[in-house]
Design goal:
The chain is built from five helices and no strands. It is an all-alpha fold and about 100 residues long. α2 runs parallel beside α4 and α3 runs antiparallel to α4. InterPro entries: Phage_imm.
Length: about 100
Amino acid sequence: MSTGTHEYESDPGHWLVMLTLLYFIPSIIAFSRHHHNRTAIRRLNAVLGWSVLGWIAAFVWALVSFRRGRATRAPAAPESLGRVPECAAARLLTDRVHPDLTI
């Protein structure tokens, strides 16, 4: 029977550090992704992270990063071109538009 410590045991400080990192995962994700609301996410995580709902809300908010008014749709290719690669479609459009511009 051994009275020494086992290599699998760790001190309470190790667990405290691990739990603190786990607690602040939403804030860490928000700051690493340069989320535009990272300060608000950090505050939510710090104040309400102790509750499961507050932590989940901060976590989901850190993962979702959209900005209103910033997204634009790409213009659709004319239907007459069908499914062709973009470079081929650009050449076809250039061939159609170029003669009209030289007049």
